[in-house]
Amino acid sequence: MMQGSEVFEYAFIRFVPKVEREEFINVGVILYSKRKKYLGVKYHVDKDRLRAISKDTDLDEFSSYLKSWDLICQGDERGGKIAQLDLSGRFRWLTASRSTIIQHSKVHTGICENPELVLDDLFKKYVL
Q1: pTM for the full model?
Q2: More confident residue, 5 or 83
């Protein structure tokens, strides 16, 4: 491992309008690095793209759910009690299995020096 490099974990955030159909679109990425003390999320709501697989979803409400994920990552009190957990607790809560309109991929791992740059790269490659 290169000097300054540390393990990180990440998952893709998915829009899953009908859980039973198992169709999804990646809308974001969440990344956590314990040693770098980093937890970040990036997301993008392309309403035209999301409406293509679900015309009846309230996309404003969906966007507000994603905003709450951002507040939780930041540890912002507006994110509720979950936002008050430590970084690891917040990441584990956000990546816990759920069967709602917002889901995530399996958690993946990697090694990096700068988790923010990796988050940007994953976002550009797999979301935009």
Answers
A1: 0.91
A2: 83
